[in-house]
Amino acid sequence: MSARRKARKRALDFLYEADIRGARALDLLGSRPAEELSQGTYVAELLSGVEEHRIKIDELITTYAQGWDMDRMPAIDRNILRIALLEILWRDELDDQIAVSEAIEIAKEISTDDSANYINGVLGRIIILKPSFAL
Fold it and tell me: Which residue range(s) make up the domain with 128?
């Protein structure tokens, strides 16, 4: 498994825990001992980016996740989408298809049977419309 995928999964752990506990993911990251944090730099970048752009990210998920309210969507899927959208929309050094592929692979590993296809559909719609977004 690549270092970036490990970092994405670790960031997903923090985002999921933050959702469940009603906390900030960056606060949870800061509360962990350094030896517990592998790929800490990229994890922190992902968490900071999701927090900074959370309103826009969640607005896009709500708009393009047809048939799902944010509150009804599984927390894992919601947070996989948050990380992928951060990478697609605000990480120019990363190809969009890599972000989508990583999100799909993570969903296949740790979410429901239907999640990978659903996440692929949402991200695909957003990538098509990406040039029209005012970010």
Answer: 3-132
CA atoms within 13 A on the CB side of 108: 8
Q: Between 75-90 and 96-110, two packed helices, what is the crossing angle to 10 degrees? A: 170
Q: Are 89 and 61 in contact (CB under 8 A)?
A: no
What would the two tokens of residue 91 be? 């990480």
For residue 16, CA distances in Å to 42, 75, 87, 121, 124 come to: 17, 6, 18, 21, 23
Q: Provide the token pair at 76.
A: 């894992």
- Residue 118 in tokens: 């659903």
| Cα 64-2-40 angle, rounded to 5 deg | 85
pTM for the structure as a whole:
0.91
pLDDT reported for residue 134: 73
CATH code, domain carrying 58 = 1.10.940.10
